Amino acid sequence: MNPYLQKPWLAQYRPGTPAEIIPEFPHALAMFKAAAESSPEQTLIHYFEEAITTRRIDALSDAFACALLARGFQRGDRVAVYLQNVPQFVIAMLGTWKAGGIMVSVNPMLRHKEVALILNDSGAKVLVTLESLFHEVAAEVVPGSAVEQVFTTSELEFLSGPVPALLKDSRRMDCAGTADLMRLLEEYLGKTPPPIDFAGSDVALLTYTSGTTGPPKGAMNTHANIVYNSQNYRDWMDLSSRDVILGVAPLFHVTGLIAQITTSFLLPCPQILYYRFDPATTAELVEKHGATFVVASITVYIALMNSPEARQRDFSTLRKVYSGGAPVAPATVDAFRQQFGAYIHNIYGMTETTSPTHAVPLGAQAPVDPNTGALAVGVPVSGAVVHIVDDEGNVLPVGEVGELVSGGPMVVPGYWQKPEETRLSFEARGIHTGDVGFMDPQGWFYIVDRKKDLIIASGYKVWPREVEDVLYTHPAVREAAVVGVVDAYRGESVKAFVSLKPGMQATPEEIIGFCKGAMAAYKRPHAVEILADLPKTASGKIMRRELRS
Q1: At 517, which CATH number?
Q2: Range of the domain at 509
Q3: What is the pLDDT of residues 279-297, one digit of tens each?
Q4: How many Å apart are CA 464 and CA 482, to the nearest integer?
């Protein structure tokens, strides 16, 4: 049994000062080095059908570090990694650290203006990107940036057998003015970079916020942040070297970076990578490699439930199942467990908290608040100290709704070269999350919604998540998002956007009628728009801002 279930953390949790935290490793690279020494023949990455050992990743990342240093790379320089979920991402990340640098993760869904913003803000000297992304975006963006070297690569690397169906349209491309990453690694293979050491406070990663509340900002995830929350994943999810991590979260995202990459270093254990999420491919690889642990957005689980191919696969090994990044409707949790036999545990965190501050311990089930219908996001993980505050920053009593302020050794020191934004978001107690919620008398935390998404209809407060939870109980609704729209009479009224399950039908009028018996009149959607798909970030979070506009 998970040891956290044997402790009285529910009844006794109150905000306070965490005990002194002593990370097991001085920095994030040390976790990998320990794995390379203890388990060199351990498979570290399953890439589709291929198995890549820790020894090979160690040698290739050494080669990358040596290539960087030979080209004048200095300690503290930045390498931007603009890739999908491919092994080269892990190699570039480790090689950057071995050269003394900071890795900048870039969402592969971003385009010209967005990529240019990150390259310019980070001052990255090196860019590692896919050949396709170079032609589509980077070739036009790099000339106006600080980037001095571009290394291109392909998702077809590391494949020795037939090309997977997911990559059937992939083609190799010539990228003039760039260096081919794999040829470069071959050139430096066998060379070892000089030893490097980091302080825990040194920045390891710049992970950019999704931009849902404004221009993206580079969160400075330190080596100590990474080590600490990698340990939390291991301990709270009861992970060991016997586990197999399903790498469904995008690697550029803090979940992919910590829950997948660095946790696999710490254990060590394999992670399954397969370029990008696809329900049929995901289900095939869960069955083939015996995946045991996953953290994914709720939209991933919804897609699996609606995939005929997934329903035919064996999911019996996948029992350590977590979801974060967006509200989870209790009805979806129940439906997934009925179909696949696994309970979806909630998890909550931010880019700025290096992944989790709260989690439902493995084996526990989150309660549902009887007043709001919200599913608890968990209890604070080890070291996290969370306050619920009002608009003036005063700590609120148990049960009252306010903004979460999260503190602890997982919280970043601030935003890259943005002192004013850092001052506005961070304080001595931690970071103002922008999420509104409360703590119940037993210590469970609930997220009501994003502070900026509150709808004021006829003077009444409406939290979109509460309406969305009702919509998810409709038998035809696959996905739902609720926003406030201008209403001359009410000030704002509620509008819902939904997508439907394959083969199911429903009209806007039917959906509005369905909501009538489930919520107060001012909360009900006054308009429903049915879309084929709802817009999402690469991590699977539905983009209310895009729907609102």
Answers
A1: 3.30.300.30
A2: 454-548
A3: 999 999 999 999 999 999 8
A4: 5
